[in-house]
Amino acid sequence: xxxxxxxxxxxxxxxxxxxxxxxxxxxxxxxxxxxxxxxxxxxxxxxxxxxxxxxxxxxxxxxxxxxxxxxxxxxxxxxxxxxxxxxxxxxxxxxxxxxxxxxxxxxxxxxxxxxxxxxxxxxxxxxxxxxxxxxxxxxxxxxxxxxxxxxxxxxxxxxxxxxxxxxxxxxxxxxxxxxxxxxxxxxxxxxxxxxxxxxxxx
Length: 202
Ligand code: HEC
Ligand code: HEC
Ligand code: HEC
Ligand code: HEC
Ligand code: HEC
Fold this sequence. Notes:
Blueprint: H1 2-7, H2 13-27, H3 30-43, H4 59-65, H5 70-73, H6 88-95, H7 103-113, H8 134-139, H9 144-148, H10 165-175, H11 197-200
Helix pairs in contact: 2-3, 6-7
The protein binds heme C (HEC) (5 copies).
């Protein structure tokens, strides 16, 4: 069962009941139910809902309209495992002068002055038994959007790509000895991505 679970989309209990019960009753069986789940999984419809963040920070404004590069705020991506969430200081780079009269910006100023970090809620989270590192993927020229979707268009970031084991393995297998999609605009500098269980599992 565990291995089956790894390939199924993530569902909240509520989504499971909302999709599962009508599918079994109306569709007349488990097969229909599973087919619906797989289609929803592939389209990202069952991805986790966005958590409520302490400040209404908007990626479509900052990374989209203003065009601030992802790496300005997420500094670790090409050198370490974690992409990192920016510190209050990085917001103050602009918000010590920009829009200081607005309520949402006052929350940033208060955090900065009282030296308390902003408690951002995690959107993407691997289970504890999984090891993931950004560095290798960014060095292999894989775009952020491959795994996170079009974040520069999102007002609130939510998980839209189903990052289960099947997704990881599909790309690793494709890269193993071949290249990722011939239509990828960036040359992939590696000719193998690891397939051993121990690379991804602690
Ligand atoms: C001005 C700073 C800033 C820029 C620029 C920025 N981000 Fe973010 N990003 C944040 C903050 C703050 C959070 C935490 C709050 C949230 O989730 O919205 C975050 C969260 C995220 C998350 C969710 C993290 C999690 O918990 O799983 C992803 C994914 C992400 N950003 C990707 C991107 C990408 C891709 C770009 C470029 C297109 C980008 N960001 C540009 C500040 C920034
Ligand atoms: C190959 C897939 C993949 C790519 C490419 C990728 N990410 Fe991630 N990202 C993930 C996964 C998986 C997690 C969850 C990691 C965990 O929980 O250990 C994550 C987590 C994050 C987080 C949350 C904080 C953290 O460090 O865990 C941020 C922010 C983020 N990614 C931003 C980015 C940005 C910006 C880029 C492009 C420069 C990018 N990611 C490229 C898969 C990817
Ligand atoms: C490179 C400059 C820059 C950085 C860095 C930056 N911002 Fe902004 N931010 C802006 C600009 C410009 C606006 C638009 C102000 C306006 O509407 O006139 C804005 C608007 C906002 C708003 C909307 C304010 C409102 O109520 O209208 C919020 C919230 C915000 N930023 C949060 C953040 C957070 C949190 C960070 C750090 C993770 C951050 N910003 C980093 C430039 C920046
Ligand atoms: C779009 C393609 C793609 C996706 C999706 C992807 N990977 Fe990878 N991954 C790669 C490539 C290519 C490499 C090899 C990079 C190299 O050897 O330089 C790699 C390497 C790795 C490594 C080895 C890192 C190291 O330091 O040697 C780990 C661990 C890993 N991936 C975990 C994951 C996990 C977990 C997921 C799913 C959440 C995932 N990957 C999704 C393409 C991908
Ligand atoms: C490229 C990375 C990668 C490789 C290689 C990999 N896994 Fe996984 N595996 C994952 C990820 C990511 C998850 C978590 C999926 C989720 O929670 O949605 C997972 C989940 C699992 C689970 C489910 C645990 C649970 O209940 O959540 C099992 C069992 C598992 N893997 C076994 C294996 C075995 C056995 C191998 C070797 C044949 C293997 N994995 C190779 C990435 C990988």
